Structure formats: structure tokens, C-alpha cells
Amino acid sequence: MVTKRNLLGAGISSTAMAIVLAAGMAPSAALAQEANPVDTDIADEDEAVEATPENVIIVSGFRQSLETAVAEKRNSDLILESVTAEDIGKLPDDSIGESIARLPGVTSQRLNGRANVIAIRGLGPDFSQTLLNGREQTSTGDNRAVEFDQYPSEVVNQVVVYKTPSASLVGQGLVGTIDVRTIRPLEARESVFAIGAKGSYADLGKLNAGSEEFGYRVNATYVDQFADDTFGVALSAAYTDEPYQLQEFNAWGYSGSGEAGSPFAIAGSKSFVTSTQLQRIGVNGTFQARLSDNLMATVDGFYSNFDDDQSKRGIELPLSFFGTTFDPSTATTTTTEFGEFATSGTFENVQGVVRNDIFQRKADLYSGGLNLAYEGDDGWSAFFDFGYSRTDRNELSIESYAGTGFNWDDPNRVGDEFAADDVTDTIGFQSGTTGTVFSPSLDYSDPTLIVLTDPLGWGGSLTVPQAGYYNNRILEDELKQYRVGVAKELEGFVSAARFGLAYTDRSKSLVPDEFLVRLRDGLTELAVPSDALLRPTNLDYLGLGPIVSYDARTLIDDGTLILEPNTSNDIPRKAYRITEDLMTAYLQFDVEQQLGAGMLTGNFGVQAINTVQKSDGVAFADVDGDGAEDRIDVSGGADFWDVLPSANLSLRLDSGWVFRLAASRQIQRPQLDDLRIAIGYNIVTQEDGQSPTGAYPYISGNGGNPALRPYRANAVDFNIEKYFGGGAGVVALQLFYKDIVSYIDNDVAVFDYTGFPLPVGQAPATPIGLLNSEVNTGGGNFYGAELSATLPLDTFTETLDGFGVTGGVGYTKTEIENAQGEIDVIPGYSKWVANGTAYFEKWGFNARGSVRYRSEFLADFTGFGGNITRRLARAETIVDAQIGYDFQDGSALEGLSVYIQGQNLTNQPFVSQFDVPVPEAVIDNQEYGRRFLAGFTYRF
Hints:
Elements: H1 4-9, H2 14-22, H3 27-31, H4 61-75, E1 80-84, H5 96-101, E2 106-111, E3 114-120, E4 128-132, E5 135-136, E6 158-162, E7 176-181, H6 185-188, E8 192-202, E9 214-226, E10 231-255, E11 265-290, E12 295-318, E13 325-326, E14 332-336, E15 339-350, E16 353-375, E17 380-403, E18 425-432, E19 435-439, E20 451-452, E21 468-489, E22 494-519, E23 537-538, E24 546-547, H7 552-557, E25 561-565, H8 570-574, E26 576-595, E27 598-621, E28 630-653, E29 657-668, E30 679-684, E31 698-703, E32 711-724, E33 729-752, E34 768-777, E35 780-792, E36 803-816, E37 832-842, E38 845-854, E39 857-862, E40 868-873, E41 876-886, E42 896-903, E43 910-913, E44 922-927, E45 931-939
Parallel strand pairs: 4-7, 27-30, 31-34
Antiparallel strand pairs: 1-6, 2-3, 4-5, 6-7, 8-9, 8-45, 9-10, 10-11, 10-44, 11-12, 12-16, 13-15, 14-15, 15-18, 16-17, 17-20, 17-21, 18-19, 21-22, 22-25, 22-26, 23-24, 26-27, 27-28, 28-29, 29-32, 30-31, 32-33, 33-34, 33-35, 35-36, 36-37, 37-38, 38-41, 39-40, 40-43, 41-42, 42-45, 43-44
Helix pairs in contact: 2-4
């Protein structure tokens, strides 16, 4: 039971206790002895500190959010960071992802300008886990990483990032666990009705026809308690309709050897302007009932409908292929340590492809659960929790091609050469540190010149053009989790013992639905219907001028473009269904012992997880001897255990110093699509020295690996923290080391093909063969340090009352080896991350400016058909600011807060680099522009 004595014994002051209550948090959540909020104790209101004017220092707004986070950090026995809403339904940032990315040692990757996925301690989203109210969640992405733009910030009350695990923390990640929490009405202890609205403006303007530059968000929250605070309800809803604009330069790559006469030069470009309209509705509801003095029931549910509709228009330019010519002797070059690089020149015979593409992602996310928590008068407590999460996602990608003509039907064409009467372009180029600018000789906005066709013969047909491609990816992700636990308070060094069981059942499937796009009536060329033409899209930022524009969906609907099913075996080969059954048991002992001028608190224990994973899919082999591949349903998987001991000890001194030591065994499950069993294989009859058994013939294949084990690491953390200013300020040094004992990388490994049908007449000597796939391999060292601080400046002098700073800097070093024994570039890894916020808050006025930085990292980019492509992203620095005013007590407008925000004020682009680190060798340069928002919240 959490009492005033226990809170003060853990080092929390009466002021900090008041802050916790004012923020709508249960003291048990702040204490975080149980790492998971669904395990929280029922507070005894008779023993808790009363929130009365005599013993409460009222702090509000951003400063309240910081002080609550400091209290959470101080009183937890796990190493963590957190962010709490400034008020009901009001996180400190426009986006939940932005708020998390400002925490020490945490950063994000942007998608269309939004903070989309989170990296902890320099590692990307594949190495952490996300929970909602302590329960594991499905994702709108292909893998486990939650995309945080699926959660409206207005329905979130708090986010906690655990950097170390405890035995009772179920669903933990390798570098951290992110727990997103919504309001608990009986913990809020007051009735609230609040509404809010904001408008947004994207300063790049309306880049595509039909797009917008202005958007809006509206939200409402209602919290109330009934029947002497024995029943409570919290309801939140938020709706978003906002545009995002993007100007992108993209290079296919760079050709040449870098030697004299063969400089590196841009090999091709596929650049777009993208206009996104994000429409999202999020609804959250929680009902709590104190069924007796000892029993609390909590039922909560969350629903999000997400529609991200993108229009992508641009030109694809093959510059070193398809018969183009480039004379290096006429180019301007610069000498680098990697060789000669062409900064300008001219390409001739360029056959450009005008692209009018669509990318639309729709997702419905359902999440909720039931929690029963029992708190006995004799020190016994218990809980039962059921959680459910489901995501249904449709991801539609439509490519539509147009150009000066269809060339494959020209009898004079030989190989990649163009016929003499083909209309081609002579294009000059200048490559710089932000990409390449072109100087074309054709007018790509002329609808009599640019027609629907297959300009480069991508369809591979001499008579039937492929005028585009239609790819619909249908994903379903469902997760059920059951948990029970029991605890007993004890006397002595061990203050409590906890035991629990959890069962998690998850399944995820992908069904690809793909079509070739043809022209009606078997035509090879067709003018865009005049009534379908839209305002030309301006590519002046690339020097390409305007281009012909239309909506491909309109042309499909009116029959101008015809969909022809793609019958290639490559399509069903992509399909998969993956199931995971996890049985987890834990035993944890809490520690509390007075030691002279301080107190030792913490926990130690062990978590054991049995994993049964299975993948169903298809394989292809000629099993009937007709020379064609046959489709065979196959399945595979693995059954294994992980034993995860952990310990967290904190020495808390009366002087405000806290010393922490944590040690644990940690895991992170493989990406879900790496577990797919879809495998293509054949029989190798020639003795090539590669047979794993030395016998021939043998089987060789490629695909997924359903037998993958998790990433595994042994970790040690050490923290030194100093609290001051009545507990409102902190300076912390965090040191961590992880010994990665099992890593996942692509390699050729031995694979057992037992149960797979074999080609007729080609029986291998043994079912043991080779598989090119993701495999478990050795790891290496991963270590670093973080220095963070939250400093209310009035701690040092009253003249700075209202001023403060918060932020941190983190350094990580990786020495992890890939399957070839080389130091690997880990997805999402940044050596340096830093962030800082300076603020002023007084007399109702508030202002703050924020900066966040991350060094270069291996970033995820969406490729063809929604597949992820990874490229090295340059370092970036993001600058945001906000000013606002809260009308004070006694004012006619009491309860009203108004504010304006500016995001990405320096217009920092998102840039990826060619393998040769020459500044001009840009692969992607994505410019999102600045965003400005103005809004209000009103609390009745």
C-alpha cells in the first residue's frame, strides 16, 4: 500500500507528492515499484497526503509537466524518463512522437515531417517495445515498432520510457520499453470537461492539385467521478485533418569508377512532390469502479481510424541507362579522396517517365482491456488483466507512367537504343550538397507531348505496354494478452514478493493483391483525357518546370486504365501468416532498507519466457515434372525458452543524491516479416564446394527464417543523480553497457528442408541445405553515456523565477559484428543524440524553444510497394518554438489557454547519402518546410 510514509521514505517530498496528485497520477504510478501500471496498488486516501491549500504548492503548465517527470524519475527503482500532459488532454507538443523525442537519450525519425518512430539510446525502433497502459500493442507498420502518429496526443496523459527492465515488466525491449498511458478517472480526483482546437499551416503551400495548405485538429475530454468517488469515467476524442507537403530529390545512385575519364556521376533520378492529407480520429474511454474497499475494476478502450492519402507527382530520369549518352570530357568535376566526382554536365537521349502516383494507407486500430486489482488489509494483493489489440491495414500503391511515346513497339529499336524519330531530352545537370538540379529541353507539361504509355518498356512486352502498377497490401495484426499476479508485503530487507504469469497470443498476416496497369483497348499510347487533366505540378525546385498531372484513380474508375492481375509466383511468395504464443512467468522481490543517512530500494528477480513461433506460407518447386514451378503450402517455426534475470538497486541519500545500479538479461524479438516462411529453392547438382554436408546434390534457397531467435544481450547500467530545488530539478549521469550475445543479420546458413516437397527427379542427398536469409549470429559491445538536466533557474536566484532549461546529450558506441565479422551499421543507430528546451512560464505567459539533434544513422525509407529500403541519413537538427497565455483565476476567460507553435523553423531537410561519402552524392533530400499552428484549450 502506498502511503505518505512510503513515499517520503523513498525520497519524495510533500511538494513533489502534491505535484503527482495535481497531475492526475496515482502515487503508485509515480512510485513505479511495479513497472507496469496495470499492477498498481489502490491508494489509501486516509493515509495519503491531502491536497489542501495549506500543504500544496500549485504548479501548472509546462513546469508542472517537468516537475512530475522529475518526481517519476526520482521515485522509480527502474531507470526511466517520462513526459506528462501539462493539463488534461494537453501534452507539451503537437505530437506524442515529438514529446517522446525530447527525452534524454531518445530521438525520432521523421515521416512526411512528423516524428513517426522512436530510437532509444541511439538504436532504432526495432530494438524497443511499446505498450499502451502496460499492454503490448499491434502496429500500423509491417513489424513490431509502433508508429506514434497513430496515437493522438490529445488522448495521452503520460508516456514513460523504461531504460532498464524489472522481472515484472512484461513485454520489455532490448534498449527500452515505452509505456503510453491514458487518464484514469479515479486517479484524477476531480471533474474535468475540456475542449481544444488548433489550425495548422504548411508553408510549402499547395504543391499538388487538390492538396491543402491549411488544416485543423479538434479534441474534447471529459472526466468525472460519482457515488462518493467509487465510480469514475474518462472520455477523450480527437480528430485531425491536416496536410503535409514534401519536395523530394531522389537519385537512383551514382555511376562511374571515380577514376580519370570515369567520374562518379548521377545515374538517374526519381523525384517527387508529395502532398499528404492525414485524417485521423482517436477515441479513448476508461471506466473505473471501486467495487469494495479492497477491489478496483478498470475497463478501458482505444480506437483510431487512420487515413494517410498521398499524391506523388514527379519525373523519373534514367541518366546512365536505356540508351542515354554522357561525355565525361565535357563535365565539370571535383577531386575528392574517393576519386573524381562530376558536379555538372549534360546527358543526351534521355527518355523521361512522368509519374502520377498514389500512396494511401488506411488503418483501424482497436485496443482495450479489463483489469481487476485487489488490495488486502493483510499485505496481500493480486490482479487480473486482459488486453486486446488489433490493427487492420490497407496499403495501396498506384504507379502511373506517361512519356513521349512507347518505344518497344518500334521495329528499329535494338536493345537499349532509341529510334531516330523518338522524342528524347537533352538535360543538363548540376549536383550539389542538397541534390541535383536539371536543365531540360522538353516541356513536360504539354499534354500533346506527354501521353499515357510505357516509355522505357518496363513491362517487357514488344506490343503491350505496362502503363503502371497497382499494389494493394492487406495486413491484419491481432494480439491477446492475459496476466495474473499476486504480491505479499514483507518485513525486513525484502519488503515485498511478487509472482505473476502472462500469456500472449499474436498473429500477423500479409495478403498482397497486385495488378499490372494497361491502357484500354490494347492501345500502346493514349492521351490523358482532357477532363482528367489537373493543374500542372511545379518542379521548379529541380529545374524541371511543370509536368502533366492527373489522378490515376480517376482513370482507373473511368476505364482509361485497366487492371490486369499479376499472376507471377513472386506475388503469393510475399504472403505470410505468423503466430507467436508466449508464456511468461516472473518472480520478483522488492527491497527497502534504511542505510544510515539514506535508503536502499529496488528489486531483483527473474522472468522466464517460453516462445512458440510459427509461420505459414508458400514455397515453389517443380514437383510434378512439367518444368513449371508448383505452389506448395509450407509451415515452420521454433519453440524455445529465454530466462531473464534482472536487478535494480537505488541508494537514496537525504542530501538529494541517488545512485543506481542495474543489471539484466534482455531480449528483442525479430522483425515479424523476417519470420515469414515464404521460400524459393532449387537443387544444386554441380559440385561447387558449398554443400553444408559435403554431399551432392543439395538444396539452396532464399526467403524468410521462421526459426529465428531474438536479439539477446547482457546489460549493466549505472546512474548518478542529484535532485535539488525542492525536488523540481535534477542533473543525471547515465552509463550503460550491453554485451550483445545474439544478433540478427543476413547470411547464408544451414537449413533443414525436411517436409518441403522436392522437384521431380532431383532428389538431394540430404534434406540439409542452405538458405539465404536473416540468421542469428554473434554480436559485440554496445555502450555509452547520457548526461541530462532539468533546471528551474529560480533554484539559483529569485531574479530568474519562471525561467528554466531541460535536456540532455547521449553518446553511444557500437562494436557489433555482422555475419561476416565486420562492424555492422545497425538500423537507426546514431552515435550522438541531443536535445534541449529553454522556457519561461509566469503570470500566465509561457514561451519555450526546443532543439533536438541526432548524428547520421541508417534510416528507413518507403520503397516500391511499401517495402522498406535502408540508407544512411545525414545528421539533422530540428528547431521548434511555442508561446502561449493561460488566463488567470478571476479573469472572465479563466480556464482558457491560447498558443501558437512553429515546427522545423530552420526548414531542416531529411537527407540520405550515397555509399561514397561525397557531400554532393545525395540519394534523398526531403524538404518538409515549416509548419505553424495556432490553437486554444478551454477547461470548464
